[in-house]
Amino acid sequence: MKKVICGALAVLSFSFFSCRAKKVPAQSFICMDTVCSVNLYDDGTEKIYKEIADRLLKIEKTFSATDSESFTYKLNRTGSVKTGAAGFDNFYALYFPSWIVSKLSDGAFDISVNPLIQLWDIKSENPKVPSQGDIEKALSKVNWKNLPECMMADSDSIPETFSFGQEGMSINFGAVAKGYAADCICTILRRNKVRKAIIDLGGNIYCFGGKENGKPWTVGIKNPENPGGSPLLKLATEQTSVVTSGTYERFFEEDGKKYHHIMNPKTGYPVDNGLASVTIICPSSLAADTYSTTFFVLGQEEALRRLSDFEKAFFTNLEAVFVYNDGSVSATPGLKGKLDFYGDENGRQIQFIPNVKHFDMNAAAGGGTF
User: Fold this and answer.
1) What is the pLDDT of residues 14-70, one digit of tens each?
2) 328, 351 Cβ separation under 8 angstroms
């Protein structure tokens, strides 16, 4: 049977075992409110795994919105911090791209959405739909334009104090932190000359390096109708990140209606546009993580209309898969021959979207924004 790494879902257990002996088995860490698993196969050592664990812990202590010891939590409580403070540089490394994409998407992705996330509290034991008044109150504190404008790290214009522009604002890196963490792990792997690895940060998958036989990795994309069962789709891919945002990840039902965790920063309610999931395939896991949420909020047509600008920011190209509530699937044409249904018995076909215009990296001078 063909081995499948299930992206956007719990990775199938056999994806963590190599046919050959390993120095140290695959390791798992509880971090960023999820199980993070890393398999370095034959190159795994205690030293490298410890370095990865330490980096994940540092990321959590910087970007968690719920850990009272984290830099972000403390900033959210005070609304202000000195830019020379310890940990600010680490914080700014992710704040910078998050703010840029908030601006680029006109707030479809909005790093200041935390008041809505706190209000809906979908992770709680008994979540419920907030009152319209409470939603409007939370919405009044959500606006990326009231956050400090980004400056380049070497700019003389960076102020001495980083302050929110409105009382009660707070930020949340939940839609980007795992992608950022995966990229940081890849940096560690390259520095340690690791040949291949599978990184699974709560379903955010990074296939690092290649197999000995030269064949592509096979990644599964969850079926929103049965997320605990077999994947809906299978993807053959080289070294890259595969990240999915879906309505099945965290949700509750009230009066027969489903309310999921992906918030629309404009309305204050979960996004309701017919999408069940969006998967982004991209060499940058941060870009994949960021845009899986952004594309979900914008919807297929608007997301692809802006695709070139989104790609330019990260100086990379990406592919996208859109799964709808009615079971239909559409994808960017670069996935033809790589993406198919996994054991589908209904004869469904993937609609590959015509006339998708990517950013031309070969014709562009210099790099992207980051």
Assistant:
1) 333 334 434 799 999 999 989 999 999 999 999 999 999 999 999 999 999 999 999
2) yes
C-alpha span between 312 and 316 (Å, rounded):
7
* Of 258, 270, 296, 255, nearest in space to 119 by CA: 270
Pairing of strands 5-7, 217-221: parallel
Question: Six-digit token pair at 332?
Answer: 């960017």
pTM for the predicted model, two decimal places = 0.92
Classify 56 as helix, strand or coil.
Answer: helix
CA dihedral over 274, 306, 359, 244, signed as positive or negative:
negative
pLDDT tens, position by position, 255-265: 999 999 999 99
Q: Is 5:33 a contact under the CB 8 Å cutoff?
A: no
Helix, coil or strand: residue 246: strand
d(CA 333, CA 59): 35
Question: How high does pLDDT run on average in the chain?
Answer: 91
DSSP conformation letters of 139-203 = HTT--GGGSPPP--TT-TT--SEEE-SSTT-----TTTHHHHHHHHHHHHHHHTT--EEEEEETT
**Ramachandran sector of residue 203 (left: φ over 0; alpha: ψ -120 to 50; beta: rest):** left
